[in-house]
Design a protein that fits this description.
The protein is an all-alpha fold. It has two domains: about 210 residues, no CATH class; about 250 residues, no CATH class. It has 22 helices and two strands.
Length: about 475
C-alpha cells in the first residue's frame, strides 16, 4: 500500500531533519555520552514522526510494524555477534591474552612508526580473517593499550585500527561485504577485488603517509621510562607468557577455516576462559573471592563473560583498558541498534525512503553523476537505516540496471558500493558498525572519526578516479585487461 502513496519530497525528508536536529542537540548537551540513551530516544522519536506522517497518508500501522520487525531481524546476527565480542573481550582480559599482546608489543613497536604499523597489522589480520569486527575486538584492543602506554591520543590510535581493519573488510575474499557487493552489482568476486585496487591502493597509501607524518611529528616524553612502568604494572597484575599467543592464533585459524562468526567467537571466548584458569590462578582467586578453586573458576569465568571485571593495576594509563564489561557493556549499543532499525524499518515501510531515492536517481545524467549518486545514496542509507548491509544491498539493486543502461560495467558499481557503503558505516555513531567499534574500543565515534583516514578518503577517491576517467570499464570493453 505504501508504494502507491505519494509524498512531497520535503515531507519525506522531515523525519530525517528531525533526527539530524535531535542528534545535533545530543552532541551539544550530552557530549561523549550520547550512546547512553539520548541517541536512542532521538531515533525512536524520529520513527514516531515517520509513523504520524504515514498514518496521515493512509499507511496502516500493521505495515509499519511489519517493516520494523523485518528491519530488526536483519540486525539480529550483528547484535548476537556484539554480545559474544563482549564476552570474548572479558575472558581475553582475565586470561592475560590482551595484556600479553601489549607487553610484547611495547618491545617490538617503535613509537614513531607505531601508527603506521598499527594500520599494517590490522590490515593483514582483517584480510586474513575477512572480519573488521573480530580484528578490532582482538588485536585492535591490544594495539589501543600499546598506543595509550606510548602516550598517543586514543582517537588517533582508534583511527589507525579502524583504517586497517576496514581495508581488509573491503578487499578480503573472506569478507561478507566483499562478496555481497559484486552479487548485488552482477559481477564476480575476483573481478570486483581486482577492480577495487584502483581506488583502494591509493587510499591506503595516503592513509599510511598521514599516519607516518603524525608519528614522526609526535613528541614522546620519557618514553623508555613510561614503557618500563607500564610493563612493570602488567607484570604486577598478570602472569605473562608467550604461550598465551596460542589463544588468538587458534581463533584466527578457526576464522580462516570459514567457521561462521557466532561459533568462532564462542570458541574464542571459551579458550580464553580455559587459558585464564591455566595462566592466571591468582587473578581467578581474586575475582571469585571463594576458598574453592572450582567455585572461583566458575564465578570468574562467568563474570568476565557477562559483567564487569576491574583488574587493579599500578598504571593509570592502563586502568581503563584493564576494565572489561562483558556482554553487559554491549547492551547500550544493542539498544542503539534496535532503535536505529526501528527508524530505518519505519522509513522504508512507509514508502518515504523510496521517494527520496527515486528523486536522487532522477538527477543522474553522466558517469560521474551516476557514481556520485551511488556514493551519496550509500552514505544516505548508512545514515538513515543504520546498517552497512542495507547500504550495499538497496543501492546495488537500485543502480544495477541504470549502470547497464549507461554502458558501464557492473564492477564499477560494486567498487563504488564498497568505497562508500562498506567503509563509511563505521563513521556514523548510530550505525551498527560505528556503535559496535566505539563500544569495543572504548572511544566515541566523534573522537576517532577524524583520524579514520582510509574510511574518509575512500569515497572521495572513488569520485576522483571517475572524474579523471581513469580505467572506467564499460560493457563493450569488459574483456579488456585493467592494465591496458
Amino acid at each position: 500500500m505504501s508504494e502507491k502513496i505519494y509524498y512531497p519530497l520535503w515531507l519525506a525528508f522531515v523525519p530525517i531533519l528531525v533526527l539530524i536536529g535531535m542528534l545535533t542537540l545530543n552532541v551539544l548537551f550530552f557530549g561523549d555520552n550520547t550512546l547512553g540513551g539520548s541517541n536512542q530516544i532521538a531515533l525512536l522519536v524520529s520513527a514516531g514522526v515517520v509513523g504520524l506522517i504515514a498514518h496521515k497518508k493512509g499507511v496502516l500501522w500493521q505495515d509499519i510494524k511489519t517493516g520494523i520487525v523485518k528491519s530488526i531481524s536483519t540486525a539480529m546476527p550483528a547484535m548476537l555477534i556484539l554480545l559474544l565480542i563482549g564476552s570474548l573481550a572479558g575472558t581475553w582480559m582475565i586470561s592475560g591474552v590482551i595484556p600479553t599482546l601489549i607487553y610484547y608489543g611495547l618491545d617490538i613497536l617503535n613509537p614513531n612508526i607505531f601508527l603506521f604499523a598499527t594500520v599494517i597489522v590490522t590490515a593483514i589480520v582483517s584480510v586474513s580473517t575477512g572480519s573488521s569486527w573480530s580484528t578490532v575486538a582482538t588485536i585492535g584492543v591490544a594495539l589501543m593499550g600499546i598506543g595509550i602506554a606510548l602516550g598517543i591520543h586514543e582517537g588517533i590510535i582508534a583511527g589507525a585500527v579502524i583504517s586497517g581493519a576496514y581495508f581488509g573488510d573491503k578487499i578480503s575474499p573472506l569478507s561478507d561485504t566483499t562478496n555481497l557487493a559484486p552479487a548485488m552489482a552482477g559481477t564476480d568476486l575476483f573481478t570486483h577485488i581486482k577492480y577495487m585496487m584502483i581506488t583502494t591502493v591509493p587510499s591506503m597509501i595516503l592513509t599510511l603517509i598521514l599516519f607516518l607524518i603524525i608519528g614522526f611529528n609526535h613528541e614522546f616524553i620519557n618514553i623508555d621510562q613510561n614503557i618500563f612502568e607500564v610493563k612493570m604494572a602488567i607484570e604486577h597484575s598478570f602472569d605473562i607468557s608467550p604461550w598465551l599467543f596460542l589463544v588468538p592464533v587458534l581463533l584466527f585459524i578457526v576464522i580462516i577455516l570459514k567457521v561462521p562468526p557466532l561459533p568462532a567467537l564462542m570458541f574464542g571466548t571459551l579458550i580464553g576462559a580455559i587459558a585464564a584458569l591455566i595462566f592466571q590462578p591468582e587473578l581467578i582467586k581474586n575475582i571469585g573471592g571463594y576458598d574453592s578453586f572450582a567455585q572461583n573458576a566458575y564465578v570468574s569465568s562467568m563474570r568476565s563473560m557477562f559483567g564487569e571485571v576491574l583488574i587493579k593495576t599500578k598504571s593509570d594509563a592502563l586502568a581503563n583498558l584493564f576494565h572489561s564489561t562483558g556482554m553487559e557493556g554491549m547492551l547500550h549499543t544493542i539498544w542503539l541498534i534496535i532503535s536505529a532499525m526501528v527508524f530505518g524499518g519505519s522509513l522504508e515501510a512507509s514508502g518515504m525512503l523510496k521517494r527520496i531515492t527515486d528523486a536522487i536517481i532522477s538527477k543522474v545524467k553522466s558517469s560521474f553523476s551516476l557514481v556520485a549518486s551511488t556514493v551519496g545514496t550509500c552514505i544516505f542509507f548508512n545514515l538513515t537505516t543504520s546498517d552497512q548491509y542495507i547500504a550495499i544491498v538497496v543501492p546495488g539493486k537500485m543502480y544495477a540496471d541504470i549502470y547497464k543502461e549507461k554502458g558501464l560495467a557492473p564492477e564499477l558499481l560494486s567498487r563504488t558500493l564498497e568505497d562508500s557503503g562498506t567503509v563509511t558505516s563505521v563513521l556514523i555513531p548510530w550505525n551498527t558498525c560505528g556503535a559496535t567499534q566505539s563500544a569495543v574500543l572504548g572511544v566515541s565515534v566523534w573522537t576517532y572519526a577524524p583520524y579514520a583516514f582510509f574510511n574518509i578518503i575512500s569515497p572521495f577517491m572513488s569520485l576522483l578516479i571517475v572524474a579523471i576517467n581513469y580505467k572506467i570499464r564499460r560493457l563493450h570493453s569488459k574483456k579488456v585487461n585493467l592494465e591496458s
